[in-house]
Design brief:
One of its GO terms (biological process) is cytochrome complex assembly. This protein has six helices and nine strands. It is an alpha/beta fold and 207 residues long. It binds adenosine-5'-triphosphate. The site of adenosine-5'-triphosphate has 11 residues, from helix 1.
Length: 207
Amino acid sequence: MLEIKALTCIKQDRCLFESLNFSLLSGQIMQIEGPNGAGKTSLLRIISGFARPDEGNVLFNNQNIAEDYDNFAQSLLFIGHRTGVNLQLTAYENVQHWLGVHGYGCTEDEIYSLLGKLGLVGLEDVPARTLSAGQQRRVALVRLWLNQAKLWILDEPFTALDKRGVAMLQGRFQEHLDSGGSILLTTHQDLTNSFSSLQTLVLEYRH
Ligand SMILES: Nc1ncnc2c1ncn2[C@@H]1O[C@H](COP(=O)(O)OP(=O)(O)OP(=O)(O)O)[C@@H](O)[C@H]1O
């Protein structure tokens, strides 16, 4: 599904990674690990097509993403470490907004039911700025239930979640993998015993 070929990234005269190669198949999950500043977010942004590598290519289904980005974008769900939640809107309004962007239909009842499933009962209609960090993260993660993208790229998705939230998210990941999806993520969470298809890529801090 995803092939990373000879990727090199240089930031502020520092080479973050050089000639990086790996692939991610349908049903696989890959965790990118490494110390602060190693280049994990930079790598995710390049693979998502938001930034250009200094060298190398990203292929999705054998197609260079730079050559047909619109097609790739339809298969991609990216959630960054900044949640992307509009803090002026309520949780319900944020979901409505994402539904509009992705062109999916959902009834009012379905939206409330989903927010309830994510532990946000009673918080659906208050401005997101009044929610806790973990509750805001839960609002952001609603997109994982509203999306049909095959490839999920997630930067620190577990941040601020409590144990139940972590378990719920891992359950959602497994559903996605079981249905043939793939996940590339950064996290400091230990996922070793959680996913049989887990691959790990460690980025060292290069001086
Ligand atoms: N837009 C930018 N312009 C210049 N330098 C940048 C830019 N974005 C990132 N960097 C630098 O690239 C390096 C890697 O940053 P990156 O955010 O990819 O690291 P990270 O591994 O995700 O770190 P963390 O674990 O702290 O999130 C850092 O030294 C950072 O200062």
